[in-house]
């Protein structure tokens, strides 16, 4: 019996699209969209947790591997799928099941859009802290799968710090609940943390109990412009050394400011050669502001408080102003490295070395409050070579930068995940024993490799017989 026949016979109310050109958009995510396909996978659209469990059970019985998918906004190929696989989309699971102001938590289905949850929470004076750049279009299930971060991580942490409990469909179709509604709880192994960030290789999240925070009584945006990228990167340490803990600390280097101005018509580069963009929140905001202005001014910054009406534009320029993929044809590689905050200046200082060594152009924006950078490595595409593979120098430069970050105590991915795109880089970070342990956990939970095979976990080196 074919997969389509089995699914429609067992679940007649379930919408299933057969593998065809119409399902091609489900073959890739935002990180792999540059390599489109003509023929997509089978796609199922369950509307309840029970339907997800039934679909996974049917696929497992037929030996068909399953790729979980949220909104497809991931940047590492974690939701890419072959024509012989089944994509289980969570886009119909969009209920906010509960909002409990007394417990400061919400229970949601995985297809809820990050921004939509905060819209629903605002009347209660609460908010959900993790805010990836794609917050307006990414789903909470996808955020959980990659342990997404965002701008507010500097103060509030990544997704893992805001997840109390999960409902998960396992590879055999069993539905389990892990975690608790209480803030504290240490019974058993921490399976919530195991599933958060596991990129769908262990289970499909069908429900989440999320920790909420009170909306700050005040928010304020500050800019600090510097005369060079290096000066600005070194000045970031003054924030850490102060007694202020901003909600957001973003750093934009000189080429990033130029890119934003070219794409968005702004004038950031005229005001300085690098920018620290800071958001303060909470009580005592005047005192926080005064201390931070003193610290950044002493470090060489030209500091200004941004009028409330202008702040949203600056934050939007930070999130989407670079215009990636627009303008002159360009080969590019984006990265998601993270390093200890003290190593940020060294990483920015290394960019000119890469440019001289490989002939590439390197820029980066950084969640400087937690040391997470998003470098962009570019090479212009000569006329007539559009659509051809990038020259090896681009990949070599990207790997060189990853190795440099690792040498400074960093990591391959701060928040985007490994997916398929970063498997080779992950192998540089994880030693063979750790890789084997990771695969042992995968094999114990998913012995038949049903869920998202070939993702997230680099293959360990085989030992001779």
TrEMBL record:
Its cofactor is FAD. Signal peptide: none annotated. Pfam families: FAD-oxidase_C, FAD_binding_4. Coiled coil: none annotated. InterPro entries: FAD-bd_oxidored_4_C, FAD-bd_PCMH, FAD-bd_PCMH-like_sf, FAD-bd_PCMH_sub2, FAD-linked_Oxase-like_C, FAD-linked_OxidoTrans_Type4, Oxid_FAD_bind_N, Vanillyl_alc_oxidase_C-sub2. GO terms for molecular function: FAD binding; oxidoreductase activity. Residues 36-215 form the FAD-binding PCMH-type domain. Keywords: FAD, Flavoprotein, Oxidoreductase. It comes from the Bacteria. PANTHER family: GLYCOLATE OXIDASE SUBUNIT GLCD (PTHR42934). This is FAD-binding protein. It comes from Miniimonas arenae.
